[in-house]
Design brief:
ATP-dep_Glu-Cys_Ligase-2; DUF403 domain-containing protein; 29 helices; DUF403
Length: 844
């Protein structure tokens, strides 16, 4: 009997557990998180891994997998995704069903080492940008500092507002050859992964709440609340406005940034949302400029200020460094802190720790030699085949991304490395990295599941809070699906694992506001102009999709191929031809002479048709991707279902009945999406802009329908289709008993203020929305877009059905388009003619 089997027998292990662990053994030369070198569980019977696996064994394999299928469905429905670096496609978040578990005692030791290392990085930055004693005293070569592109000379001598260079420190760690934790890389620039750790925890705790509770897993809320307090510490105002600066929705970590902004109550902004005025940083909102007191940046420091740093940057804010100099802005992390990610620092860290902290490092990095030092260069040259050669000043992103040379590389790479060391040796470090440690992961076999060792990298976080450094009780773990894949960064073939720190005693449930009474608020804060733009177009695209779907349904229900004669016919063209002409004009169908079913399929899901319902839903989803912190999980589920419904296989011919069913279900989902907006969103500015977009688009589309189907030559059939497109058949039938007629139909779909589908109803709603939005000035004079909306409302209030012939309807449609442009010019940050909010006054 093996040592592992003996432990399982003594612990009373379940049958699934025995089968799962049968044959499990560490990979040669690699330390394992579960097993010690002698084959026994590292934490012994009753420890962290044993507790988790025993609970999973009692749950049973079918139930365990069913729960994880549910978790994967939640990930898909909630739109949790990521982008591979350099790839614009989104991939579903690959969450592992097995967390990495760590016992409380081991975590305490690891946390102490992490805090010590964070304090050391803070001290190094304070010295480098301050007195420079480390260089002067010979503890750190001057070339390591001055030669790094992360050393920002404009900030030398600038004290960080709030007193700290680092608000968040992270380290990638793994087990070394002796089984002890060691640092693989420091993350001090703009550490990512905190949001992924939060998402992992929410999904896995939702899937396994009983096991999560039974294992006494440490919670996150207290850490996040302390981290938020740390972001605010040092701000000039008692109730500071905190923003999270992102590079935008195409960032590989945008989803986690949006999750963090939503969870912490931060304003998610891009560089275009910010502007310097009077020496202070402000956010462009629909209410004018609003002061930003603290900024958590998630872009590299070099891109922050094109005036003083990288002039090619379009991500930052011109002049933002001035706010740091005058102390009006707290920033996390302080620009220039990326210097501590340099591998050239590692050989000197222990000596610096002894000098500045009075103690040696307890959490060390890999053995490293800087090639700018003669002794280090000699060692690297002598041992080149056994070391990994890396750029000294480039943040480590993984062996496949920045390693110039690693063990067992090709001869051509070795020649290139030798030449690089000869020309510029000070640009490189040599590291004895060794293989990554492993943790258990699932592998499916004919007999069921079994555990196999998988390489992993764990990222742990420490936040600077008002009471000192606080370590997050967990982390962000990346696990490779194969032994030869480097999990140092997220990409295909890598899974993310939640990290469970198991307490010896039950964990008290905590909430983000525990121990404090927040000020009562009824509004969510000011809406950035960019977010208003995205919400407005989200509303317009969903309404466009609904209009196309209704047009397809009307075509399928009322006409067939036999009545289609001439799409370019005159006033007496049959209704089918009128509908087909409208489909073509909207770009929903590029081949109007197709059979009815084929044209309907193209209009619903055509990939090459820019006006298809699917194209509009995907455009709505792209806009929603910019608003992840403002849309609910239910809205994401509806959008995901809509994309699935409208993603028809172009190689398969669907029948008219099948297409009608798809279209009807899609309309139901769109109604649900509208209901979520009306019932779940607070009546703040964001809701106004979503509904404004829908109302304007619906009014324009109805005018288009009327021009095509309710002109002076309209037939009873075309008028019936007009009522169907406006979902007004029941209202019309209850009001008029003698059948359809031109003037009553026009009145109902254009002028009736009681019909929620009429143009007049939309105009009234638009005017109310605009009246509720913040004005440009407090002089009582209506703004241009409000005056235009008032004229449109007055035209419908005083008009009669006979006034709205083709000329009258075309004029109204043109005025609605002008109104949409006027709203964009007033509120949105795009276009040379936009009314930039910095001109509006009202700073706050």
């Amino acid at each position: 009997m093996t040592a592992l089997a003996e432990v399982k027998e003594k612990a009373g292990g379940t049958v699934p557990l025995a089968r799962w662990t049968e044959g499990y053994a560490p990979l040669p030369g690699r330390p394992d998180a579960y097993l010690a070198p002698d084959g026994t569980p590292r934490d012994s019977a009753g420890g962290a891994w044993s507790r988790l696996l025993d609970h999973l064994g009692r749950l049973g394999e079918p139930e365990m997998m069913a729960r994880f299928v549910s978790a994967e469905r939640h990930i898909r429905d909630a739109g949790i995704s990521f982008r591979v670096y350099g790839d614009q496609r989104e991939h579903a978040w690959p969450l592992s069903s097995l967390p990495l578990v760590i016992g409380a005692a081991e975590w305490r030791d690891l946390s102490a080492g992490l805090v010590q290392r964070a304090e050391l990085m803070e001290a190094i930055l304070a010295d480098i940008y301050g007195p420079g004693d480390l260089v002067a005293g010979g503890y750190l070569p001057a070339a390591v500092v001055a030669g790094s592109p992360e050393f920002l000379r404009p900030l030398h001598g600038v004290a960080p507002p709030g007193g700290r260079y680092l608000k968040l420190y992270a380290a990638d760690i793994g087990r070394g050859p002796d089984g002890r934790w060691r640092v693989l890389a420091d993350r001090t620039q703009a550490p990512s992964g905190l949001g992924w750790a939060l998402e992992n925890r929410m999904v896995l705790a939702r899937a396994f709440p009983d096991i999560f509770e039974a294992c006494h897993v440490e919670r996150f809320p207290a850490f996040f609340q302390a981290f938020r307090d740390g972001l605010a510490a040092g701000a000039e105002r008692a109730d500071p406005r905190i923003c999270l600066l992102t590079s935008g929705p195409y960032s590989s970590t945008y989803v986690e940034q949006a999750a963090l902004a939503r969870y912490l109550g931060l304003m998610l902004v891009e560089g275009d949302d910010l502007v310097m005025q009077d020496g202070r940083l402000h956010v462009r909102t629909v209410s004018g400029l609003k002061r930003c007191d603290a900024l958590w940046r998630r872009i590299d420091a070099d891109y922050l200020d094109p005036l003083e740093l990288n002039p090619a940057s379009r991500l930052g804010v011109p002049g933002i460094l001035e706010a740091l100099r005058n102390g009006s802005l707290v920033m996390a992390n302080m620009p220039g802190s990326g210097l501590c990610e340099s591998g050239a620092l590692e050989p000197y860290l222990d000596g610096i720790a002894r000098r500045m902290l009075g103690e040696p490092l307890t959490l060390a990095g890999p053995p490293t030699w800087w090639c700018g030092d003669p002794d280090g260069l000699a060692h690297v040259r002598d041992n080149l085949d056994a070391l990994t050669l890396r750029p000294a000043a480039t943040p480590q992103r993984g062996a496949g991304r920045d390693a110039l040379l690693g063990p067992q590389t090709l001869a051509a790479d070795r020649d290139r490395a030798v030449a690089a060391l000869r020309e510029r040796p000070f640009d490189y470090v040599g590291q004895a990295l060794g293989p990554l440690s492993t943790m258990p992961g699932w592998e499916r076999t004919d007999a069921g599941l079994r555990l196999v060792p998988r390489p992993f990298v764990l990222r742990v976080f420490a936040a600077r809070t008002p009471s000192g450094w606080q370590v997050m009780p967990g982390g962000f773990c990346r696990v490779a699906e194969r032994d030869d894949v480097d999990p140092t960064e997220m990409r295909l073939g890598i899974r993310a694992a939640d990290v469970w720190v198991l307490s010896e005693t039950p964990v008290e449930t905590q909430t983000p506001i525990q121990g404090r009474t927040p000020r009562v608020r009824r509004l969510a804060g000011h809406l950035p102009s960019r977010a208003a733009d995205g919400l407005f177009w989200f509303g317009r695209y969903t309404e466009r999709a609904e209009a196309v779907i209704r047009l397809v349904l009307a075509h399928l229900r009322s006409v067939g191929d036999a009545v289609v004669t001439d799409i370019a016919g005159g006033a007496h063209a049959p209704t089918a031809a009128r509908i087909r002409r409208l489909i073509a004009e909207w770009g929903a169908g590029s081949a109007p002479n197709l059979p009815t079913a084929a044209l309907a399929q193209q209009a619903l899901s055509g990939r090459t048709a820019p006006g298809s319902a699917r194209a509009h839903i995907e455009s709505a989803r792209r806009n929603a991707a910019k608003l992840r912190n403002r849309l609910s999980g239910e809205a994401w589920r509806v959008l995901a279902d809509l994309v699935d419904l409208l993603s028809l296989d172009p190689g398969r011919a669907f029948t008219e009945s099948q297409l009608s069913g798809r279209a009807e279900r899609a309309l139901s989902h769109l109604a649900a999406l509208s209901g979520l907006a009306h019932e779940n969103m607070s009546r703040a500015a964001g809701w106004h802009f979503i509904d404004l977009g829908r109302r304007i688009e619906r009014a324009i589309n109805t005018c288009d329908f009327a021009l095509a189907l309710a002109d002076d030559e309209a037939t009873p059939e075309s008028l019936g289709v007009m009522l169907a497109l406006c979902d007004s058949q029941l209202s019309y039938g209850s009001r008029y008993m003698q059948g359809v007629a031109l003037d009553p139909v026009r009145d109902m779909v254009l002028l009736d203020p009681y019909n929620p589908r009429s143009v007049a109803f939309q105009a009234e709603a638009i005017a109310r929305h605009l009246a509720d939005l913040p004005p440009l000035a407090a002089d009582g004079v209506p703004e241009p877009h409000c005056r235009l909306a008032a004229r449109i409302v007055a035209e419908f209030r005083s008009g009669e059905a006979a006034d709205f012939d083709a000329v009258g309807m075309a004029r109204v449609e043109s005025e609605l388009e002008r109104l949409a442009d006027a709203i964009a010019g007033r509120y949105f940050p795009a276009g040379p003619q936009a009314a930039r909010p910095e001109k509006l006054g009202g700073l706050g």
